[in-house]
Specification:
With 262 residues, the protein is an alpha/beta fold. It is 40% helix and 14% strand. Strand 3, helix 5 and strand 4 (116-118) form a beta-alpha-beta unit. Bound molecules: 3-methyl-2-oxobutanoic acid.
């Protein structure tokens, strides 16, 4: 019997929702961390354009390019046996034209070995999502605080009830266009609950309360690796950043005083 775990596929997301099973998603950017999270049984690894901030050190996600996304997506796919690999379409890779959206999504699947792409936006993305799905590319939507609109939003802050009033309709439109799931970021828990009840596709929350069908966290936040700023909704499951600094310090000390190598 093979010891290769059964791969999570796009249709499994809807099955999970029908069965009332929660979906656990983390972000990943390289093969080694992907392998460790895959072994833990995470359902999907999102190659987020958050890599611009946590890997590249930028202050927003806006400078991430298609070539970077393809490079990191391929690395994550190389380290993954079980989890569904979903890749973010970076800023201006899909908003500019339908042809760009199809070509760039295709690159993430063909060159990056992702199984699905994620894009930000609701009603304005209806035609794009429908076209991508039509050509065979599964799409995850992303509503609420959408980091590629950081300047329009005036920063990365939780949306108020009044700012969230169009989200239910946006979610229904994404579902209608064929999105297989929808990330809800930094919106009131009551709105996330309403959306989750109204659509058949799973909602994946981040800072959107406990009622979503699944949750996603930026792994660097969850494991305590990124401490430039920590969003209030983040739970730190480890303090690997401190452990790495301690380990590096022990190494530096041992090299300097001749204890390593023996
Ligand atoms: O880029 C990213 O990591 C994301 C998640 C925060 C959902 O979009």
């Amino acid at each position: 019997m093979s010891d290769t775990p059964k791969r999570v596929r796009v249709p499994d997301f809807a099955d999970r929702k029908r069965r009332g099973e929660k979906i656990a998603v983390l972000t990943a950017y390289d093969a080694t961390m992907a392998r460790l999270m895959d072994r833990a049984g995470v359902d999907a690894l999102l190659v987020g354009d958050s890599l611009g901030m946590v890997v590249k050190g930028d202050s927003t996600t806006l400078e991430v390019t298609m070539d970077m996304m393809v490079h990191h997506t391929r690395s994550v796919a190389n380290g993954t046996k079980r989890a569904l690999v979903i890749a973010d379409l970076p800023f201006l890779s899909y908003q500019t034209s339908m042809a760009d959206a199809v070509r760039n999504s295709g690159r993430l699947l063909a060159e990056g070995h992702a199984a699905a792409v994620k894009l930000e936006g609701g009603r304005s993305m209806f035609d794009t999502v429908a076209r991508l799905v039509e050509v065979g590319i599964p799409v995850m939507g992303h509503l609420g605080v959408t980091p590629q609109s950081v300047h329009r939003l005036g920063g990365m802050r939780k949306l108020s009830m009044s700012e969230s009033d169009r989200l239910l309709e946006d979610a229904k439109l994404l579902e209608q266009a064929g999105a297989f799931s929808i990330v809800l970021e930094s919106i009131p828990a009551e709105i996330a609950k309403e959306i989750t009840a109204a659509v058949a596709v799973p909602t994946i929350g981040i800072g959107a309360g406990p009622h979503c069908d699944g949750q996603v966290l930026v792994s660097y936040d969850a494991f305590g690796l990124f401490d430039e700023f920590v969003p209030s909704f983040v739970k730190r499951y480890a303090e690997l950043g401190q452990q790495m600094t301690d380990a590096a310090k022990a190494y530096v000390d041992e090299v300097r005083d001749g204890r390593f190598p023996k």
